[in-house]
Design goal:
alpha+beta; Beta-Lactamase; 4 domains; 5-stranded antiparallel β-sheet; 44% helix; elongated
Length: 446
Amino acid sequence: MDLLGNIGPDPNSYWQAVITAAGLGVWDYDIKTGEKHYSRRWHEIRGLTPGGPLPETDEAWYEVVHPDDLEVARHYTTLINEGRADTVSFEYREKKPDGEWVWIMCRGRAIAHEDGRAIRFVGVDTDITAMKQTEDERALYSKQLEIALTVGKIGIWQFNAETNSVTWDRRLRQIYGIPFDLNPLPRDIWENAIHPDDLEMVQERTAWGQSQREDYDLDYRIIRRDGAVRHIRSRVSLVEDGPAGPSFMGINWDMTDDVQRSAQLEEAKREAEERLYQLSLAHKELEYLSNHDPLTGLHNRRSLRSYLSDLCPDGRAPRGTGFLLFDVDRFKRVNDRFGHAMGDEMIECVAKALQEKLPEAGIIARTGGDEFLAVVIEGDANRLVDLGLAAIEHARQQTRSQGEEMTVSVGIAMADDVASISDVLTWADRAMYKAKLMGGAVAAVA
């Protein structure tokens, strides 16, 4: 058995096969004679044809070296040319004839010396373009991840159950307000930071997740050493094949700003809903005021017109509809003698009496200072007279209780299929004046 260990009678063939399989481009440089020899693979790495023309000088070679790598190439070339190095190893980019750049790892070793200086080098070149691309992609991914973690204020921690050790990165220490130089971290540093009101929930959830060996989430509050309360969201996973054995790894991010914004939005929503509710009430109030008399609360002339328009779309009231027009007798005398305040009280008493004694009315409206109109659907003349007299008597009693008795006269008109609504109202008005001519406090039918 030789030193190569049963590799056959021709070791050179064996190692040639190994070099070829490894894709290595071999070079041989005799510094003393200036002779250079290159393998076929050396040419292939550079996109060159074996036996084809090559740069005759180092300066000519530098023209195809990437500008960013030129300093490195000059440095190691000088070391080789001057025999001042026994080994060299460097990476650089070289332009291929098709214009593409190839990353090359060059390694060389001196195999002959003279007067203490290297006079012959052999080496291998390796195409590491794919590896460099992977490194670049990983570097880019790592940079993107770093930016995402920084912008998202995301901290990372790891807990190894076997060694009972815990590690936090710098961002996590910033979130919790833990000094960067606090090492090793106390085992209970996390539990001690959790808000007392959230501690039991967090412990139960954590115990469940670790016992089930499943991913789990947590939302809780912490109290930093400076007393600030922060809202934390956590995501925890079990890493089975970690370098130090199974461990739990998690990410924490500070949700305080989001929670506060959410609370602010919720408060703004509540205030908006409250304002909307108040506006709705105000709208209803305005609508009510626009359709009701402010003193008595009865419908006003505007509301009455709307009601009659709906009741009589063709301008004629349905047959049998009764109209009762009330007018307070000698109302001016009360105003002149006792003042408008007393007059208002009397009007309110009359309005109350009409509402209590005319429940059958579709509408009761105050149409003037001392005038009221009630509309009764499908009324009967005799029945309307009884209602009118009852209202007159109740008004008399109501006003008497206020210290001044007032009487009311009422004119009654019944609609037919011919007369317009304005005609029927005119009849009621004439009947009311007829009642007053009869001495007041009377119900007269047109």
